[in-house]
Design a protein that fits this description.
Shape: globular
Mean pLDDT: 95
Number of helices: 12
Largest sheet: 7 strands, parallel
Strand content: 5-15%
Order of helices and strands: EHEHEHEHHEHEEHEEHEEHEHHH
CATH topology: Rossmann fold
Bound molecules: nicotinamide-adenine-dinucleotide
Low-confidence stretches: none
Helix content: 40-55%
CATH class: Alpha Beta
Structural class: alpha/beta
Strand order of the largest sheet: 3-2-1-4-5-6-10
Length: 362
């Protein structure tokens, strides 16, 4: 997979105690990489990081804050990574309404700290900088945003990630030109689902919590449309982008969207209903909305990732939802070794990439 580029490579992964970071840490170790994680402690109970004992599966796990510049720089300098995957963030829209300063400090200043710390370490060749589909100025239009469209964001989370995009582009032009510095790209993915996420105010974890407590599933915004994708989809995009940056450098130092195909762009109510069908229990009801703004329509145009990287989505939303529900069912039934089961889900996804005739790089 990925031209075997990660075998023996040293990877510095921020956000490895989070949902996507935990999956990425495991996948990288399967690819033969030495992973050094750098994050705060898991912020949910349970957490995938804790339940699968990911600390014991990777080379090194550092409990550190990306706002602690001294510790961050020392950790990177000591590990001497080949590539950084930067996922650490305050990623929740609704929390950004109550914690705007924390959101901006973590997402904007924190990312700048990681970019700067990476520039000091001469060994680093590549940097994959994770932002989001919400970085675009959302005009509620009925088509996907392209990479060259304006950044924006109504709420503080979205705009902080729009800022990260603008700041990263400026950083690239200021400090990472020609022979200077590493090759840095940004990755914008859609609404991610998968086992092991227990974050607050996210649809799937909310559904799972309601179902397991025997309560009706209350959804706030049934008609909101989002690009749903299984967590392994954007991660395969990040890994492919990292591969290209390591192999061919600054040619790929740019922004890339990673989203699902059009048929996986679904309404919140449709996804919740599919969760119920897959679970075999639960009932969806619409809860009275509060007045916090959330976008109604959000889609990504993924032609650039398809043409330039040879990346393409592999799972439909139906498959993504089925795999996600299976994961939680096994977790709560306590009938399976969840570490082994997660590895099997990654292997199954790798197989499906091999059968995906549109996926160019295998
Ligand atoms: N989950 C999604 O649907 C989604 C969609 C698009 C983009 N993203 C982006 O993907 C990335 C990972 O998201 P996630 O869903 O795994 O989030 P998560 O909340 O599960 O994980 C966040 C990680 O960041 C770490 N972190 C937070 N503040 C930190 C700090 N100050 N110093 C060090 N580490 C810190 C946490 O410890 C955790 O490891 C984020 O950048 C997020 O914006 C997520």
């Amino acid at each position: 997979m990925f031209n075997n580029i990660y075998n023996g490579k040293k990877i510095f992964l921020t956000g490895h105690t989070g949902f996507k970071g935990s999956w990425l840490a495991l996948w990288l170790t399967m690819l033969g990489a030495e992973v050094c994680g750098y994050s705060l402690k898991p912020n949910t109970e349970p957490s995938m990081f804790g339940e699968l004992n990911i600390e014991s599966k990777i080379k090194k796990s550092i409990c550190g804050d990306i706002l602690d510049v001294e510790k961050l720089e020392a950790s990177i300098e000591e590990f001497q990574p080949d590539i950084i995957f930067h996922l650490a963030a305050q990623p929740l829209v609704r929390l950004s309404y109550s914690e705007p300063v924390l959101t901006y400090k973590t997402n904007v200043i924190g990312t700048l700290n990681v970019l700067e710390a990476a520039r000091i370490c001469k060994n680093i060749k590549a940097f994959v900088n994770i932002t989001t589909d919400k970085c675009y100025e959302n005009k509620e239009i009925n088509r996907g945003y392209r990479e060259d469209e304006p950044m924006g964001g109504y709420d503080m989370y979205s705009s902080s990630k729009g800022c990260v995009e603008i700041m990263s582009s400026s950083y690239r032009r200021s400090f990472l030109q020609g022979e200077d510095g590493y090759a840095m790209a940004t990755a914008r993915a859609g609404n991610v689902i998968g086992g092991g996420d227990w974050a607050l105010d996210r649809l799937i974890p909310d559904c799972v919590r309601y179902i397991n407590s025997g309560r009706k599933i209350e959804i706030r915004n049934p008609i909101a449309v989002r690009p749903w994708q299984h967590v392994l989809e954007p991660l395969s995009g990040y890994l492919l982008l990292g591969q290209k940056l390591l192999e061919e450098g600054k040619k790929y130092a740019d922004g890339f969207n990673f989203g699902p195909n059009e048929e996986s762009v679904l309404k919140v109510a449709e996804v919740a209903q599919k969760v119920v069908e897959n679970y075999g229990k639960g009932e969806v009801v619409v809860h009275k909305r509060d007045n916090l703004h959330e976008a109604n329509l959000l889609m990504l145009n993924i032609e650039k990732a398809e043409k330039v990287l040879g990346w393409t989505p592999t799972y439909t939303a139906d498959v993504a939802i089925a795999r996600t529900v299976d994961w939680y069912k096994h977790f709560y039934a306590q009938d399976t070794d969840m570490y082994k089961y997660t590895i099997e889900q990654i292997q199954e996804y790798e197989e499906s990439i091999k059968w995906n005739k549109n996926y160019v790089i295998k």
